[in-house]
Amino acid sequence: MSGKLRRLVLYLEKERAVAIEAVERASRVCEAVFKRLVTDETLTKKDKSPVTVADFSAQAVVNNILEKYFPNDPIVGEEDSKDLLGEEGRVLREKVVELTNTAVNTPMSTEEVLKAIDRGQYAGGSTGRHWTLDPIDGTKGFLRGEQFAVCLALIIDGKVRLGVVGCPNLPYDMSQPEGEKGVLAVAVEKQGAFQRKLNVKDFIETPIFVSIVEDSCNASFCESVEAGHANHGDSAKIAELLGITKQSVRMDSQCKYVAVARGDADIYLRLPVDSKYVEKIWDHAAGNIIIQEAGGQVSDVNGEPLDFSQGRTLSANKGVIAANANIFGTVVEAVKATLSNKF
Prior knowledge:
Blueprint (H helix, E strand, L loop, with lengths): L2 H35 L2 H5 L4 H21 L5 E3 L12 H11 L9 H8 L11 E9 L1 H6 L4 E8 L2 E13 L9 E8 L3 E6 L8 E2 L13 E3 L8 H11 L6 E2 L4 H7 L5 E4 L14 H9 L2 E4 L20 E5 L3 H12 L4
Parallel strand pairs: 1-2, 8-9, 8-10
Antiparallel strand pairs: 2-3, 3-4, 4-5, 5-6, 6-7, 10-12, 11-12
Helix pairs in contact: 1-3, 3-4, 3-5, 7-10, 8-9
């Protein structure tokens, strides 16, 4: 190991620990919101206010922790506090402050919560270091009590170096779907990918690896539950080209990245639904490095690496392909053949 790489490993050791703490605490907030605010009536009326509270509260918690340990690091976050301001935002603001304070050691004032949320407005870019956060990825999964994720990544000079994904409802062992739930996946560049139990005082980490499937006909997809997040028709065509007949694993959020990273499924596709949509960096940064460090490969639908140096979006890319290295090239070719000249 070169001296430069050794310094990088030691340098990211603190960041790794802090990111884990931040994601664990944010996951606790999300679970508290679900228990207190999500009801059958909420779902019937398609009321998204609980997930809004969770989004703001989780971002406040994570940003507060990052400011404490890395005050000079900017953050690319999904939310800002404008909807919490004034009399119109009072009820929502009070709920956010209350729930935020369930997960911090020192109570935060309203002003401190709003300030923490607004630390997420950095524009991103190709130089220096910044964090990117998705406080709740998979909002409908969250409301259903199914899969959602809290996702945090550190980007240095335009490349993802560290990623943490908290999946409160993901089974620790997918072969036992009704067994213990709550998974935190973490990866640092050149150090491998690991999982640990979420919010349990058991700090044992287990290495995770993508599957070793060598023929695409033996592979399975991990796809979104929500049709609006992917083009399932194109997915079916790709599956036919690849000879895939296995039933897809369906779940919301970056939990899909974790599922592929630990071999629960073999392929994750996020196909463009139209030519104008641009992916956000917080939707893919943490999952991207976890897949790569687990031995997989990630690209856009044209086989190009995801470029996190463009700001807040993946403006240089269209869609996402993730798979184990054995079948990755074959999957990319099938995607290109299906989407030829569409994007």
